[in-house]
Batch of 3 targets.
Target 1
Amino acid sequence: MVEYVIPLAAALVGGTAGFWLLSIRDRVRLNLNLISITKGRHPDDMADVGDRMVEISESFRLSDLDLEKHATDSKIQCIRSRAKDVQAEAPGQVDFAREMRRRIWHCRSTEDKIDFMTELMNDGELTFREITTGVRRNELVLSKETDGKRGEASDICSVETQTIDGSKSVAIIFPPDRRHSFTIDSPALEDRVLPLVEAIKIFDKEALDKCLGFAIDAIKYDQSRADILMGGLREIVDSGPFRVDLMIVNKGNRAAVLSPYAALTTSGATSSLPVEILRIETILDSENEPTEVPASSFVSIGPHAAVTLILRSDPIEASAPLAAAYDKGILSCSIALARLKSGISGNLKYKVEKTVHKDFGADFDEKMREKVLQLADHH
């Protein structure tokens, strides 16, 4: 009997090994790689702005956009970007306008006048924009009377008027071919703009001096608007959600089915922070083609597939511990996903798939610059 038992036992062992080998080869094998963690809303997401910010944005001359009480993140970011530019440029442009106002009275030759105007419109882009904005808004009113102001000097530029797609455009052209165009979409606006065009054409020093004086006051006013917008909009922007980009490679022969939610966990100095729940919002395939994930839907990743998941948290207040930890610098964190699997009894179970901890934060770029320098020094 022994001689039969041994082969039978060997067959059973071999069959069991084959079954488990087949199961191993046929299982789900996920490789998770945490790519990035950033703060901010989707460009089309709405945010509550508030009456104060709406009022300030409407009085901020140097923005083509006004905020509403509920505005998209892209619009908020656009206005914030313009306010940031004004903050940076305003002090220097005030000094520039003051110097140009002094210099204007010393321009005598046609060449001096042309150089003056081209410098004003190029180096003084913010200053000249305040002038044109003031004219358009009827805050800077120039006289239409030019008789007796031409003197003996010739015109310093030519003026060209044309209509394109129903809109009139007036261009002032300096030799050899430097030009600046004004779009005029109403008769009332034409009445305001043409005196400015004429003042430039004949280099009317009194009118241009008035323009520069207006620009100095307007820049200071818009700088104060920009300061308020930067403070208020920063709080709104910083209260946005976290976005996480997570690359997943399924090296197995079976599709992986994931819960639509994941967890952002921290470690090290931030170990006491609570877990932040994230929802899988979008799947990017290997060609970066997006697929939106509907609410209350599981996520499937096919065998031998590589995808990038975009996950997003709920909005987080700027004062929240997680947001504060991110803003202060490096945040060591990982992502945990729940994958569905079948138990031996047929009941559904969940397996936790986690990334290794990685460092991200507001100064991530600077830290990576330092890291690559260190690595280069050691090799």
Note: Confidence is low (pLDDT under 50) at residues 1-26.
Target 2
Amino acid sequence: MRILTNGEQLVGKTVAFAHIAQFATAVTLATTDNEVIVFEPEYDFEEEDMFRSRIRIYQPYRAIEYIENHNYVREELGKKGIFDIEAYKQKEKERREQENKKLEELKEKREREAYERLKLKFEK
């Protein structure tokens, strides 16, 4: 399970679910590889009724928030077995905990080195 953050990551993927509702805020696409991308079009109106559009792709935290707040999208992704939001959150939590543990170990190592250096300096 993964949240895509770039449209180019969709190249070569097979779309397994699409939510492109007329009045929806954003478009949700899910691939057969259990990947999801959520994006919304933005329009800039220019002179003489001309406009250009851009796509704003949601970052993972925003995509999760969107999926959580839209029952249909969340339920359909779960029914199809494409994306389990609870499992994704658990996996992200574990990843963050491991990352924090590594950072804490690195911080301790640096503090120990600084302590040893200062100890040598002031014991003389």
Note: Residues 42 and 122 are 62 Å apart (CA to CA).
Target 3
Amino acid sequence: MPTLTLITAAPASDAAYRTDLIRRYVAARDEDTQLDLLAEAARYDRSNPGAGLTDELIGAGLGDAA
């Protein structure tokens, strides 16, 4: 049986949380911050199978190349 992981820092809606994380990733000025956000996205993806938030972050970081 799947279990849910409560993300206490997340806004009330899933869409708002995802949008905020992507915004912070794109605005990140250093690689360490980006890696921290990727790790957060990976934890989210493990808790929400099929979510693909990590892929969204990587895609957003590619800009026009994506």
Note: The helical segments are 14-27, 31-47, 53-62.
